[in-house]
Amino acid sequence: MLKLRFMTLARHIIEGEKMHPEATGELSKLLSDLSLAAKVISLEVNKAGLADILGFTGSHNIHGEEVKKLDVFAHDMMFTAMDHGGHLCVMASEEEENLIHIPSHFKLGKYVLLFDPLDGSSNIDANISIGTIFSIYKRITPDGTPGTMEDCLQLGINQVAAGYIVYGSSTILVYTAGHGVHGFTLDPAFGEFLLSHENIKIPKKGRIYSINEGNYKYWHPGLKKYIKYLQEEDEDSGRPYSSRYIGSMVADIHRNLLYGGIFMYPADSRNPNGKLRLMYECNPMSFIVEAAGGRASDGKQRILEIKPEKLHQRVPIFIGSAEDVKLVENFIHSEKLGS
Asked: Among 183, 96, 169, 109, which residue's Cα sits nearest to residue 139?
């Protein structure tokens, strides 16, 4: 009989800290608060149609996009779950133009939290998987003072933890503290995240590519050649690849993390800086994928080494199996060299 390992997220984090004598327990408590927010958001996502929270608020966020009611709920829930624990000095959200300061009557901590409360929210009404993405840094300004923009605009390599939650056929939380990537599935009967994907390793090479091919005419010539290359039949190199594009970065990368492949949201002639946000989407997902043995690039350099210049900075991204990302980089570079 198969022996199942009953491991909750909280227990897993605590056991991980035992391996680091210098750990204070603050990070584990912070992640515990995040998991609570995820449970509440998951509940609302699952009953969205019944709870009358679908549809638009009638307002727009700072990117000019219509804000849905569930976006607002997820943002507020993240703030409410995280503002009072005493672990954070400042927060930033994709839905807010400026920093989110910790209320003055709460204790200030040593960590910084950046988050995308509901990635892929345009898919809500169609009942397609969406998610939450989070990124955690240690502050670099003096302890005991309010966090600043300097604390938030750090290189991705400085992250101490990152993760995402997929709200799909089941709710799965995946996180890394830099050493190993682990997935936990929410058991609605117990109300606990249970270890379901231990020590995830992305295959070195996949057979899936994820990209919005409706933008093909606007792409870099090297990327066009790469996509055509993937579509050609060649048994030795495992081609053709299968095209799988959900339109929710969390869902697409989660699938490729498990099965291998590449997710791409490139720059194009209409969006020369790409469309996805460095601080809320690209950095945390790159931190996770690299910890699982993958690779993440803007086509020229490692995502985690891009120096952020502003809170809502956009960048192109190619992320997934290491060999697949290296290959698309070669196609782009070769085209620039005129070969």
From this structure: 109
Which tens digits make up the pLDDT trace of 81-107? 999 999 999 999 999 999 999 999 999
Please give the C-alpha separations between residue 149 and each of 91, 112, 140, 152, 243, in angstroms, as whole numbers: 10, 10, 10, 5, 39
- Please tell me the pTM assigned to this model: 0.92
Which residues, listed in sequence order, are joined to residue 187 by a DSSP beta bridge? 192
Both tokens assigned to 81: 């779950």
Which residues does 227 contact at the CB level (< 8 Å), separation at least 6?
Answer: 209, 211, 213, 216, 219
Structural domains of the chain ordered from first start: 9-197 (3.30.540.10), 208-336 (3.40.190.80)
Does residue 309 contact residue 194 with C-beta atoms inside 8 Å?
no
Model confidence pLDDT, tens digit, residues 166-216: 998 899 999 999 889 999 999 988 899 999 999 999 999 999 999 999 999
Task: Report whether 74 contacts 41 (CB < 8 A).
Answer: yes
Could you count the other beta carbons within 10 Å of the beta carbon of residue 142? 7
Count CA within 13 A, CB hemisphere, residue 147: 31
Contacts 24+ apart (CB under 8 A), 215-220: 215/268, 215/270, 218/268, 218/269, 218/270, 219/266, 219/268, 220/266, 220/267, 220/268, 220/299, 220/332, 220/335
Report residues of the chain scoring pLDDT below 50: 1-4, 339
